[in-house]
Design brief:
The complex is a heterodimer of chains A (about 450) and B (about 325).
Chain A: H1 8-14, H2 21-39, H3 44-47, H4 56-61, E1 64-69, E2 73-78, H5 85-92, H6 112-120, E3 121-129, E4 133-140, H7 141-146, E5 159-162, E6 171-179, H8 181-187, H9 192-203, E7 213-216, E8 219-220, E9 229-230, E10 234-235, E11 237-243, E12 246-254, E13 269-274, E14 277-283, E15 306-313, H10 334-357, H11 366-373, E16 376-377, H12 380-384, E17 392-393, H13 413-423, H14 430-445
Parallel strand pairs in A: 1-7, 13-15
Antiparallel strand pairs in A: 1-2, 2-6, 3-4, 3-6, 4-5, 7-8, 9-16, 10-17, 11-12, 12-15, 13-14
Chain B: H1 17-33, E1 43-46, H2 53-62, E2 66-71, H3 77-83, E3 89-93, H4 96-99, E4 109-118, H5 121-133, E5 138-145, H6 155-166, H7 184-200, E6 207-217, E7 221-230, H8 232-240, E8 258-260, H9 267-274, H10 292-301
Parallel strand pairs in B: 1-2, 1-4, 2-3, 4-5, 6-8
Antiparallel strand pairs in B: 5-7, 6-7
Chain lengths: ~450, ~325
């Protein structure tokens, strides 16, 4: 029998190369949100599309996830219910889930925590407390990686600590220090915090201020609003189907205009969400069907008014079409291939509308522009509350035919003056003279 | 996307004998399929223009009464509505590609994408979409003009045209000789079939069951491909139906095409020939001059061949 053992070096050096620092941090946030979903028994498949009761007071009372980093370390602290000891002992530190282990709604592959630790630094501390019990882990990754002779060397020392005593305080804290040199460079690049805020705002758009608050270095993050719109005239497309374990809902419509009354290029395109997590944003490539199977390539000028949303939901997160970095779609996934074809169908009438709005060598079509101007941003809960339908535009009823025509003609100034003199109205305008004489003739010569 | 050509302005649809033979063959096939499929309950969606000939035929011969005619041009909206032959025909002014996703998933359909122009990108999108959205058991028909697609007489221009229009369906490995005029119908078959297959991706329980592959010429050479979007059980039913034994049925799109040729005979000649139909392979009339090829062609289509006469109202 030949050896086919796992090697720690592989996980430390190779495993971390195909994922960005930002995505590693999002993986840790996924774990926190999964804790919340588990402890609060949130049914992601159904609840995410119900209306949000939003109030500042409610938002402040939500559990928080705080991400902080500096040159000396990285820290994530959540109030998401903590991890049970048994789960920590048997599953949390494994590389991949065991057969039969129920994965989370967002944490799918059982690699996020480990990959983040290895990616970020050399020293790892973790404390997690449920209301009843707790544990802590202190690990020097370099020292741990030196010994790799048997599977027993893959264990991680874990100590039991007391629980949090109240569900409200239950949660997990992770601190990673002795940062890798390349991570230190990223932390100092001046843009990481802003980029992370932007990514969190987008990725957890359906969770933020509904189930959880997230802050980065103390700044709270507001959810991104996918700019899909509707109006009295514009009925968005809504299609849904079930493929195996996955329920798919597709929405497509015109985008809501921005504050300047325009459509921007950047937020246009398809958004894909798996169990509520945005895994693809504003996609305009062949991945979401643009430019394939006869469908047009995304036209930067014409199609910036298009927004579509594909929601994939499943209790079995492994059945969802996301990649391991959760920043893309697995194009070989059968459910995604099915969805991609239907996404083109949902988009087709919108493309027809935009084609009619922007005809070649012609100004923007006024009627279509007026319709587009009335479109307002619409929450997914509203879009999902209707019946499945295709995108349609109800054109305003045609105006009644004009019954008047405009008369213009030239007249000698001297003749105008003669009429004004006869009327004894020297200040009468030439136009009024014209109307007066017309009315006079009509009255005196054309009795009804 | 370019607007469809308005061929109804140029050609009187009722005077296209080969097209009418094709329609009647389709009606014949649907009558045969009635044994195994409830076609009377299907929705027929076509592009009826202002003549609605297919609608009249399928309503009268099959009893289909759920009918939708889709017309692109807003310029003839009233004319389309005025000319619809039965109350059960609904009309919609929209690109067919916008309508396909809205076809009821609770019904089975006969959808005829009866384009009168050469194959273009938008047609392929429609075809692919039809394969995605049509429910299992539905029948999809596609007609396109298979004349050389550009006004030049250079195969390299035709090749370039198809490369531009068919995108990822285009086979880069084909030599220029495969774009000779005689090969253009075959290229069209490949592109249409590829578009159907791409639309079926992600629908593992259904497949394209080939049924028709007609080529005919009333002026331009036209191609009609058709088949069922069906389950393996549907395939068994189709292959076990008498339809599979007809001369025009094609169980594979790689089989030789069914070429509809309508020989030109006078009314008197036709009446004479009909008395001997279906004739033996080597039969020829002695009463007038006629080629064996014409008799063979006539034998294939005489049951479906229209007769034209002037009507004085």
């Amino acid at each position: 029998m030949a050896k086919a053992y796992p090697r720690k070096r592989f996980f430390l050096e190779m495993f971390t190369r195909d994922i960005s620092l930002e995505d590693c941090i999002l993986d840790l946030i996924d774990n926190s949100i999964d804790g919340l979903i588990r402890t609060q028994k949130i049914d992601v498949a159904s609840e995410l599309l119900t209306p949000v009761e939003s109030s500042e007071k409610k938002a402040k009372s939500l559990p928080s996830i705080s991400v902080e980093f500096s040159e000396t370390g990285f820290h994530i602290d959540d109030e998401c219910g903590g991890i049970e000891r048994k789960h920590a002992l048997d599953e949390v530190f494994n590389f991949g889930h065991s057969a039969g282990d129920v994965s989370g709604s967002l944490g799918v592959y059982g690699i996020g925590l480990k990959r983040a630790i290895f990616k970020i630094g050399n020293t790892f501390e973790m404390v997690s407390r449920t209301a009843k019990e707790g544990f802590e882990v202190n690990l020097n990754v370099q020292a741990w990686s030196q010994k790799d002779d048997s599977l027993d060397d893959w264990r991680i020392p874990l100590d039991f600590v007391a629980g949090s005593s109240s569900p409200r305080k239950a949660g997990t804290t992770i601190m990673i220090s002795d940062l890798r040199p390349e991570v230190k460079m990223r932390l100092n690049d001046g843009v990481l915090a802003a980029r992370l805020r932007q990514l969190i705002s987008l990725t957890y758009a359906l969770f933020l201020n509904r189930y959880v608050r997230i802050s980065v270095n103390g700044s709270p993050i507001e959810p991104f609003e996918i700019p899909i719109g509707a109006s009295g005239e514009v009925q968005p497309a809504y299609d849904e189907f079930v493929d195996g374990d996955v329920k798919v809902k597709l929405f497509a419509s015109l985008a809501a205009r921005d504050a300047q009354g325009a459509w921007k290029f950047e937020p246009a395109g398809w958004y894909a969400l798996c169990n509520g997590r945005v895994v693809l944003a504003a996609d305009k490539t062949e991945l979401t069907g643009w430019g394939v199977s006869g469908f047009p390539v995304f036209h930067a000028g014409k199609f910036r008014g298009f927004v579509g949303i594909a929601l994939f939901q499943s209790q079995n997160a492994l059945a969802l079409p996301w990649t391991t970095t959760k920043r893309g779609l697995n194009r070989e996934s059968p459910v995604f291939q099915n969805a991609r074809n239907r996404m083109r169908g949902a988009a087709r009438p919108i493309i027809t509308f935009l084609d009619s709005m922007y005809k070649p060598d012609a100004p923007e079509e006024a009627g279509a522009k007026a319709i587009a101007d009335h479109v307002v941003g619409t929450p997914l809960s509203t879009l999902a509350s209707g019946k499945a339908s295709t995108f349609s535009v109800t054109l305003p009823s045609k105006r009644a035919p004009r019954t008047v025509v405009r008369i213009q003609y030239d007249a000698e100034k001297s003749d105008i003056e003669r009429i004004k003199k006869q009327l004894r109205k020297p200040n009468m305008s030439a136009g009024t003279v014209g109307k007066f004489t017309f009315d006079h003739y009509l009255k005196t010569e054309c009795p009804e | 996307m370019s607007a469809p050509t308005e061929s109804y302005l140029k050609v009187h649809y009722e005077l296209r004998p080969a097209k009418q033979v094709e329609r009647r063959m389709l009606a014949d096939s649907f009558q045969l399929l009635l044994r195994d499929f409830p076609l009377r309950d299907y929705q027929y969606t076509g592009m009826g223009s202002v003549y609605f000939i297919d609608f009249i035929l399928f309503h009268r011969m099959l009893g289909i009464s759920n009918m939708l005619s889709v017309e692109y041009s807003t310029k003839v909206a009233k004319r389309v509505e005025f000319n619809k032959p039965f109350d059960c025909v609904r009309t919609k002014i929209a690109p067919i590609g916008d309508v396909i996703p809205s076809l009821s998933k609770d019904l089975q359909h006969i959808l005829w994408l009866d384009y009168d122009g050469v194959l273009e990108q938008g047609h392929l999108a429609d075809i692919s979409s039809a394969a995605t959205f049509l429910s299992a058991g539905s029948i999809l028909l596609i007609t396109v003009d298979v004349e050389p697609p550009t006004k030049t007489d250079e195969p390299k221009d035709w090749c370039s045209y198809f490369k531009e229009q068919t995108g990822d369906f285009f086979d880069e490995t084909l030599p220029l000789s495969e774009f000779a005029e005689s090969k253009i119908p075959l290229r069209n078959v490949e592109y249409v079939v590829s578009a159907i297959k791409s639309g079926l991706v992600g629908r593992p329980h259904v497949e394209l069951i080939p049924m028709f592959n007609f080529v005919y010429k009333d002026g331009h050479t036209m191609l009609t491909l058709g088949g069922m979007i069906g389950t393996p059980t549907d395939r068994e039913k189709v292959l076990g139906n008498r339809l599979a034994k007809t001369t025009y049925f094609r169980k594979s799109f790689t089989d030789p095409q069914c070429v509809i040729r309508v020989p030109r005979f006078t009314r008197k000649e036709r009446m004479f020939l009909d008395k001997f139909m279906p004739c033996a392979d080597d039969w020829l009339p002695q009463e007038f001059e006629v080629s064996p090829e014409s008799i063979t062609a006539y034998r294939e289509i005489y049951r479906y061949c229209p007769s034209y006469a002037e009507l004085l109202f």
